[in-house]
Amino acid sequence: MRIVLVGPPGAGKGTQAQYLAKNLSIPHISTGDLFRANISQGTPLGKQAQEYMKAGQLVPDEVTIAMAEDRMSQPDAQHGFLLDGFPRNLGQAEALDKFLKERGLALDAVLDLEVPEDEVVKRIAGRRICRKDNSHVFHVTYSPPKQEGVCDICGGELYQREDDHEDTVRKRLEVYHTETEPIIDYYKGQDLVVTISALGKVDEVTRRAMEALGRSEAA
Predict the structure, then answer these.
(1) Could you cite one Gene Ontology molecular function of this protein (predicted)?
(2) In the chain, fewer beta carbons within 10 Å around the N or the C end?
């Protein structure tokens, strides 16, 4: 299967992408991972991206598209993939269509994870990260630490990232509505969009997604 995963920040795309890719036996292709891999390996595309990022500028679509196309051309992606974070605007969606059409391929589905805006803000603004080990993540409502402000695992200080402040989250949502939401209508025109609620436990959302894609969850 060839799937595009879309949804607002805080919808759980990264988590669901990992579970879905595993259950469907296809690679999870994340824009974030593509940037990190290309930059760490010092590829020409990675060097270009890094120059823009160091200058505080957005990486141009053509660089992002080239990275995605290179990754989709790898042997493990020949029988399918799950795209997470790409395409993020209409230009990238059109480039993806062109790339697939030239190879006689097509998308099977665009999975839209739907979450109310207030829930998105609650999810992200409530997140707290450990300063000693940023893999230790808590939430003031859903998974609070035993002692406020202190990591249960290592005793480090918990803090709220700048990106997680409510005003920043709302700005990120505005960007999502302006740049990314239009691709949902674009793909609805191709009868590819499957919308599911991303509320509930992780495994419940995964099961919902697999059923929507017409697959039963792997044992």
Answers:
(1) AMP kinase activity
(2) C
What is the Cα–Cα distance from 139 to 34, expressed in whole angstroms? 28
pLDDT tens sequence across 150-187: 999 999 999 999 989 999 999 999 999 999 999 999 99
Q: Can you tell me the distance from the alpha carbon of 144 to that of 152, in angstroms, rounded to the nearest whole number?
A: 9
**Entry pTM:** 0.88
**Which residue stretches of the chain are H helix?**
13-24, 31-41, 44-54, 61-72, 90-102, 117-125, 166-175, 181-188, 202-212
Question: Which of these, 218, 3, 13, 4, lies nearest to 115 by C-alpha position?
Answer: 13
What's the pLDDT tens digit per position in 19-42?
Answer: 999 999 999 999 999 999 999 999
Tell whether 6 is in a known binding site: no
What's the rounded mean pLDDT across residues 103-123? 95
Annotated binding-site residue? 88: yes
Strands 28-30 and 137-139: unpaired
Left if phi > 0, otherwise alpha if psi is -120 to 50, otherwise beta: which for 130? beta
Q: What is the DSSP letter of 137?
A: E
Catalytic annotation, residues: 13, 88, 127, 161, 172
Q: Is 132 annotated as a binding residue?
A: no
